[in-house]
Amino acid sequence: MTRPTSTGCVAVAAAVAAISCGVTLAQTPATTAQSAPTDAELIASAESAAPANVGKHATIVAMGADGKMRTLRKGTNNFTCMPDDPETPGPDPMCMDPAAMEWLHAYLAHSPPPAGKVGFMYMLAGGTDASNTDPYATKPTPSSHWIQTGPHVMIVGADPGFYDAYPKSADPDTSVPYVMWAGTPYQHLMAPVKASGHAQARKTTAAAAAVAGSNAAK
Question: pTM above the 0.90 mark?
Answer without folding.
Answer: no
